Amino acid sequence: MGSQTETHLPIVDLSDENLKPGSEAWVSACKVVRTAMEDHGCFIARYNKIGEELCESVVSAVEQLFNLPLETKMQETSDKLFHNYYGQIPFLPLYESLGIDDPVNIKGCQKFTNIMWPQGNDPFCESVNEYAKLLGEIDRVTKKMIFESYGVDTQRFNSFIESTNYLLRCLKYRTPHNDETDLGMQPHTDLTMQSVLHQLNRMEGLEVKLKNGEWLVLDPSPSFFVVMAGDAFKVWSNGRIRPCEHRVIMNKAKEIRYSMGLFTFNGDITQMPEEFVDDKNPLRYKPLFDHFEYLRFYDKEKIRDPDLRVKTYAGT
Ligand SMILES: O=C(O)CCC(=O)C(=O)O
Ligand SMILES: [Fe+2]
User: Fold this and answer.
1) Which domain holds residue 166?
2) 11, 218, 226, 296: least buried by Cβ within 10 Å?
3) Closest ligand to Cα 171
4) CATH classification of the domain holding 85
5) Is 172's C-beta closer than 6 angstroms to any atom of ligand 1?
6) Which atom of ligand 1 is nearest to the CA of 171?
7) How far is CA 246 from CA 92, 214, 234, in A?
8) Given this model, what pLDDT does residue 252 score?
9) Cα(26) to centroid(ligand 2), Å
């Protein structure tokens, strides 16, 4: 549990049978997770419930998706930020992505599938839904660890999870041509509460910025899931949790890279737990945080610097 790899990011083994809430292994994993989220804003979750077969069917599902005509992919429209088709961006020519709203619910997957394939595509719908539900489990277990490590009670955890909105982003990066940038995605922090990222077809490219400022290339092993804090976790924790800065570089890639990200947003107005505020830690943010309003604020103001963005929107 919590072994240090040469990468200096802890790996927490969620498949460990001893990892039951309340057990010794659980309590020590909670500490590892909290420290990693405060130091680097991320850690690796090892998780073996997403097997080879499911991974392969999701790879073939997203291949089919990205092979659809551009006009079809562009039909995905939503008034929520990040829920649309992205691609053909002049400074990010390698990158394309589509988002599935509420993918943990079969209805969310059906709605998306019907836009892309009006004649239907059950294999796509079913494999993506199964995959998203398992990513959702990683999200919930790791959040439970974080909440517990700060002493936030189960009832508040449960109501927090109930109001969580999930978005599954499917991402594709093609290989750069000779004269092109190798930047797949520019350095950023996510505007989420938490993001769970998976390098789906084992192509590396995702890099995170560690506490010491070094960029670390993450191992694309199929059982490794990167659990990352987004901006909202910083606000929720009164600044203790550090949102993770990350980017995608495609320089060694000889193949198309597919990755998946389960993004979470808070559907209700989030109230910061009072545990975070005391004499030594005065209130840094307004105690009520409207996550979707924060997304709209970003869309309007386009503040790229994460510290400034959070401070401008939520600072006291
Ligand atoms: O492709 C990846 O691994 C990262 C994607 C990402 O950072 C994002 O969609 O915000
Ligand atoms: Fe990201």
Assistant:
1) 11-264
2) 296
3) 1
4) 2.60.120.330
5) no
6) 1
7) 15, 11, 16
8) 66
9) 28
